[in-house]
């Protein structure tokens, strides 16, 4: 029996609603195999913040370091500044565990309405650099409270950081159809983005089977809406990747179905799997949150833990349930979170 210990951070808002449903689906996918998941629940997030003044304990990183993966719901609460929740939990986990790749697969799903008329056959992956770039703590303010008030934010791009993200993306492209698009803005952002372009070209040059196309982020965003089918692998900096992945997720329907993985590809530290969506305070407590994003993130976790067969089982089960028309209200259905989860468990049992 292979046992994986998983740190469970259900977090805030709808996180604790979709998390148990996803855990039940993953447990049932493992049933009858030689894989077992042992869940270590960590009650961190905004409630913890209110009683302790921090999002998670000081030794949180140490506590999770020996676990095999982190399964995250969502963090964020309307009464706590987002900078507190993000920099108190998500960003430290990504950086301490060197989860330098954020991977977001985007695929058309059956039974899911899309805002696009032409939304069949979308199948792309966004590889976002996850630990440096525009999201940096370097900067500050001056002249506070005066008419000369100013703010400065320093983007940081390193050769090491850009190279490893591009290597990962080029490797992935070479396993897919060989097309790699790089998101840039070197016409306007003349220091960091020209550097990005140079490193991307150098690294991609080491993959003769990969066809690299640098594309300006504004034109790329438009094309992502007009013809998402024309993309396969996109590599982007932290900020550009963040924005592109929400646009891409929107093209296939609800943000409630999109998964993401924060990877330490060398597996020196645990990786973290989470849905793309946030804590959705507007629907919390109603039992109608779509659990598919959390479940699909769980499938990515099974794949990363070395069980691609189980990951495929979960994906096929959720596809078959969606194509049967059973869905939560965000997809136009009337089912509850738990009903969708139960149907996916039943589909797995019948596989
Ligand atoms: P959000 O993703 O929480 O919600 C956006 C819209 O999508 C809302 O109308 C919501 O009801 C809907 N939605 C999201 N997930 C859904 C699901 N599973 N089923 C059905 N509908 C769903 O983004 P928003 O409103 O910008 O942020 C809310 C809070 O979440 C903020 O505090 C934000 O900082 C945080 N957040 C956290 C993230 C994370 O934990 N990784 C990611 C994004 C936002
Ligand atoms: Mg985002």
UniProtKB/TrEMBL annotation:
<dbReference type="GO" id="GO:0051287">
    <property type="term" value="F:NAD binding"/>
</dbReference>
<protein>
    <submittedName>
        <fullName>Tartrate dehydrogenase</fullName>
    </submittedName>
</protein>
<dbReference type="InterPro" id="IPR050501">
    <property type="entry name" value="ICDH/IPMDH"/>
</dbReference>
<dbReference type="GO" id="GO:0000287">
    <property type="term" value="F:magnesium ion binding"/>
</dbReference>
<keyword id="KW-0479">Metal-binding</keyword>
<keyword id="KW-0464">Manganese</keyword>
<keyword id="KW-0520">NAD</keyword>
<dbReference type="InterPro" id="IPR024084">
    <property type="entry name" value="IsoPropMal-DH-like_dom"/>
</dbReference>
<dbReference type="Pfam" id="PF00180">
    <property type="entry name" value="Iso_dh"/>
</dbReference>
<dbReference type="InterPro" id="IPR019818">
    <property type="entry name" value="IsoCit/isopropylmalate_DH_CS"/>
</dbReference>
<feature type="domain" description="Isopropylmalate dehydrogenase-like">
    <location>
        <begin position="5"/>
        <end position="344"/>
    </location>
</feature>
<dbReference type="GO" id="GO:0016616">
    <property type="term" value="F:oxidoreductase activity, acting on the CH-OH group of donors, NAD or NADP as acceptor"/>
</dbReference>
<keyword id="KW-0560">Oxidoreductase</keyword>
